[in-house]
């Protein structure tokens, strides 16, 4: 680790400025990103050697998992419990819940399988809010323009246009399910929405519920799913492999039921992957703000079945992760704090970046400060200061009412944010790329749809605050609607239950691994990120 | 930091680092953790609920393992989630008519009136919500006041487990909060934008950015 300024000295430097000066910048944004963003490190990219995105860049750790062997073999399916459904949704976060609810509403029988428990996801942890261009001064076009620019003009324009256009319908749907949003004037009939500023946006466009928007959203979605008779919920049933027909299309999935320690084979007319991202891989050695289950499971399985991926070398490192105390390292401080006026200071007490620049720019600027020895060190942890003094003025409402989750976090850190700044360091937050989808969430594999963080293309190479919560709902609903439609069409052709598939694609994949000389002993998906690996139960006769 | 302490998790003794949370200690154990874990420290998912007894104390308290620091001699028992055998089903559109709010609440959660004021829910709540007062307000028909008390509820279901009358207080709270939004929230900005889009206005030019990036 490079040298840094001691915490005590940094506090003195901070106190010497009544108004911290903003240092003039000598680097263009492009140069700053190229020199300091983790995506651009020499060891952050390799080329995929096999599969339908062969030759494309990908983070090496992720490439290892993508080019790995299956967890199961054909004999695991013999004697497994057989089930069937119109639509199988894999993943219990916001995208999975939205897809399941919409598919059930579309008349399909739905099964929702979750590795942990419905709602244990990044959605519930989202704090900042959801973008929706609803204000009279705003428009979907401006939302599109901001996100396109924030993503370095790499987003799929069609998908991004749908994201921006779907926002009003998504907010209406959430209210119809019973979600609250912050209002500026609650006494006004019908409510007047409060908009917050997001980094990289031309005007305030974030709708929120305090600073636990994701909790408010997920508790409403979870309750709706649990009470929906058309959805069968399978908690603690991770997906371990997808199933395929002879023509290569998706036929459902193999789940592992942790409670009974056995495999379940689910034959489905349409399968929706909503398994999220990969923060728990700790790419480039960074801490992560992600929940326990973010291990790229769905991405690995979709790729093995033949789905195309994109931008697998573009990740978001959120600027303000907790750096001290060590036990809370990586935990998130919402961008809502900077939106409300929090400043970033280096060890000299200077501001060094516009706090509301896009996230990748702010992160690169913070890493530059640390690399140049202007970072701050406290008990072996390095970072920069997040200074909340502008939120704590006498004319401001108490922090506990403005940003209750931040106050709660400061309490856990043992910090009084009125007096003391928080030490922050970038934290792995979001997978910008993922499975290539069309406007209805359809992947390049027939029968397989994807929604949420597992997909790529919507945000380009950098996502703006508030566009993830919008993405999971807009595209979760689109995928759910499309899956129900396609399942209905299949049922009209044949009223028989969906055909059983197999794992021929796994055997084909194993041949490719061998031909490319790749290590076939490495198995994925990871399922759980801890040091101790789960051993899947196998019948005694099949044990080695 | 080199000093280690011992705690017992689900009957197994484990070495722990002072300053770590119960959850962090459990993750260093020999077995893969597959349940009672989610947000890992933010305290919003409610998955890592557990019963905790400190050394030398008789009382057992419910806590979130991700937010509770280990202490030497602590005994911890995680509480599984289960699907309750009977819940009262309702659908969001059942809540649209505010005039029916009270009879509907009584019909959907008839146990609400049976509260015996044991205070078990209040002691169980890791967020310090005055749960029992919320249920009392709800059964008296003070619905907005009752709903407001459940604002920061993380749906860990500990109050539901604690209630001897099967009231499911957190679900009552969520029901009331949802009803409030469903009945009252009609922001003018949203109504106008939906209307504009229904008329086919405000479509997006997906090529404008190309011209800009060239210039």
TrEMBL record, chain A:
InterPro entries: FAD-dep_OxRdtase_2_FAD-bd, FAD/NAD-bd_sf, SdhA/FrdA/AprA, Succ_DH/fumarate_Rdtase_cat_sf. Signal peptide: none annotated. Gene3D superfamilies: FAD/NAD(P)-binding domain (3.50.50.60), Succinate dehydrogenase/fumarate reductase flavoprotein, catalytic domain (3.90.700.10). Residues 86-469 form the FAD-dependent oxidoreductase 2 FAD-binding domain. The active site is at residue 359. GO terms for molecular function: oxidoreductase activity. It comes from the Bacteria. Keywords: Flavoprotein, Oxidoreductase. It holds the Pfam family FAD_binding_2. The keyword Oxidoreductase applies. Its cofactor is FAD. PANTHER family: SUCCINATE DEHYDROGENASE 2 FLAVOPROTEIN SUBUNIT (PTHR11632), SUCCINATE DEHYDROGENASE [UBIQUINONE] FLAVOPROTEIN SUBUNIT, MITOCHONDRIAL (PTHR11632:SF51). This is FAD-binding protein. It comes from Aquitalea aquatica. The lineage of its organism: Bacteria, Pseudomonadati, Pseudomonadota, Betaproteobacteria, Neisseriales.
UniProtKB/TrEMBL annotation, chain B:
The keyword Zinc does not apply. Residues 106-135, 144-172 form the 4Fe-4S ferredoxin-type domain. GO terms for molecular function: iron-sulfur cluster binding; metal ion binding. Keywords: Iron, Iron-sulfur, Metal-binding. It comes from the Bacteria. Residues 3-82 form the 2Fe-2S ferredoxin-type domain. InterPro entries: 2Fe-2S_ferredoxin-like_sf (IPR036010), 2Fe-2S_ferredoxin-type (IPR001041), 4Fe4S_Fe-S-bd (IPR017896), 4Fe4S_Fe_S_CS (IPR017900). This is Ferredoxin. It comes from Aquitalea aquatica. The lineage of its organism: Bacteria, Pseudomonadati, Pseudomonadota, Betaproteobacteria, Neisseriales.
């Amino acid at each position: 680790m490079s040298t840094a300024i001691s915490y005590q000295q940094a506090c003195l430097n901070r106190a010497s400025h009544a108004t911290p000066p903003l240092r003039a910048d000598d680097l263009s944004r492009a140069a700053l990103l190229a020199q300091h963003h983790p995506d651009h490190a020499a060891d952050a990219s390799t080329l995929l050697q096999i599969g339908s995105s062969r030759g494309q860049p990908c983070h090496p750790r992720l490439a290892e998992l993508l080019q790995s062997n299956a967890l199961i073999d054909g004999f695991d399916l013999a004697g497994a419990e057989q089930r069937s459904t119109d639509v199988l949704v894999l993943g219990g976060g916001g995208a999975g819940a939205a897809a399941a609810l919409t598919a059930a509403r579309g008349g399909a029988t739905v099964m929702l399988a979750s590795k942990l428990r419905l709602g244990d996801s990044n959605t519930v942890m989202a704090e900042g809010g959801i973008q929706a261009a609803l204000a009279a001064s705003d428009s979907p076009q401006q939302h599109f323009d901001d996100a396109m620019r924030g993503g370095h003009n790499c987003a799929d324009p069609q998908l991004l246009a749908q994201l921006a256009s779907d926002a009003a319908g998504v907010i209406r749907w959430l209210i119809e399910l019973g979600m609250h949003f912050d209002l500026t004037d609650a006494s006004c009939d019908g409510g007047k929405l409060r908009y917050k500023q997001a980094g990289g946006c031309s005007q305030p466009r974030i709708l929120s519920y305090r600073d636990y928007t994701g909790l408010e959203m997920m508790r409403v979605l979870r309750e709706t799913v649990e009470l929906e008779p058309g959805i069968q919920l399978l908690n603690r049933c991770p997906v371990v492999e997808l199933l395929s027909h002879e023509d290569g299309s998706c036929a459902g999935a193999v789940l592992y039921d942790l409670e009974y320690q056995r495999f379940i084979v689910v034959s489905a007319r349409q399968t929706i992957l909503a398994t999220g991202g990969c923060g728990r891989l700790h790419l480039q050695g960074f801490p992560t703000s992600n929940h326990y289950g973010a291990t790229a499971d769905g991405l690995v399985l979709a790729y093995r079945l033949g789905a195309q991926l994109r931008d697998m070398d573009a990740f978001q490192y959120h600027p303000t992760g907790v750096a001290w105390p060590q036990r809370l390292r990586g935990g998130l401080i919402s961008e809502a704090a900077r939106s409300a006026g929090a400043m970033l200071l280096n060890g000299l007490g200077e501001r060094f970046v516009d706090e509301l620049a896009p996230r990748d720019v702010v992160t690169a600027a913070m890493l530059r400060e640390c690399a140049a020895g202007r970072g701050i060190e406290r008990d072996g942890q390095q970072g920069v200061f997040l200074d909340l003094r502008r939120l704590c003025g006498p004319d401001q409402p108490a922090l506990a009412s403005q940003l209750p989750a931040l106050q709660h976090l400061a309490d856990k850190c043992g910090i009084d944010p009125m007096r003391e700044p928080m030490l922050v360091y970038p934290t792995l937050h979001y997978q910008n790329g993922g499975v290539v989808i069309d406007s209805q969430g359809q992947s390049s594999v027939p029968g397989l749809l994807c929604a949420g963080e597992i997909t790529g293309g919507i945000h380009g190479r950098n996502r703006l605050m508030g566009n993830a919560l919008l993405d999971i709902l807009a595209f979760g609903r689109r995928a759910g609607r499309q899956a129900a439609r396609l399942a209905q069409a299949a049922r009209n052709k044949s009223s028989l239950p969906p055909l059983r598939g197999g794992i021929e694609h796994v055997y084909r994949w194993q041949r490719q691994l061998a031909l490319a000389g790749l290590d076939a002993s490495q198995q994925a998906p990871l399922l759980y990120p801890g040091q101790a690996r789960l051993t899947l139960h196998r019948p005694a006769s099949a044990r080695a | 930091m080199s000093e280690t302490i011992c705690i017992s998790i689900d009957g197994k003794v484990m070495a722990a680092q002072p300053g770590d949370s119960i959850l962090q200690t459990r993750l260093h154990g020999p077995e893969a953790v597959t349940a009672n874990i989610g947000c890992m420290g933010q305290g919003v998912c409610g998955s890592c609920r557990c019963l905790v007894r400190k050394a030398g104390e008789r009382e057992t308290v419910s806590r979130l393992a991700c937010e509770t620091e280990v202490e030497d001699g602590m005994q911890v028992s995680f509480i599984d989630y289960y699907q309750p055998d009977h819940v009262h089903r309702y659908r969001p559109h059942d809540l649209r008519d505010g005039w029916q709010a009270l009879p509907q609440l009584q019909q959907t959660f008839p146990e609400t009136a049976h509260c015996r004021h044991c205070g078990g829910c209040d002691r169980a709540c890791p967020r310090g919500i005055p749960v029992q007062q919320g249920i009392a307000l709800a059964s008296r028909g003070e619905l907005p006041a009752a709903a407001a008390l459940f604002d920061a509820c993380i749906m860990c279901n500990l109050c539901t487990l604690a209630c001897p009358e099967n009231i499911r207080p957190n679900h009552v709270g969520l029901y009331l909060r949802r009803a409030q939004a469903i009945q009252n929230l009609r922001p003018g900005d949203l109504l106008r934008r939906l209307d504009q889009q229904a008329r086919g206005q405000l479509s997006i030019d997906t090529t404008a950015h190309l011209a800009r990036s060239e210039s």
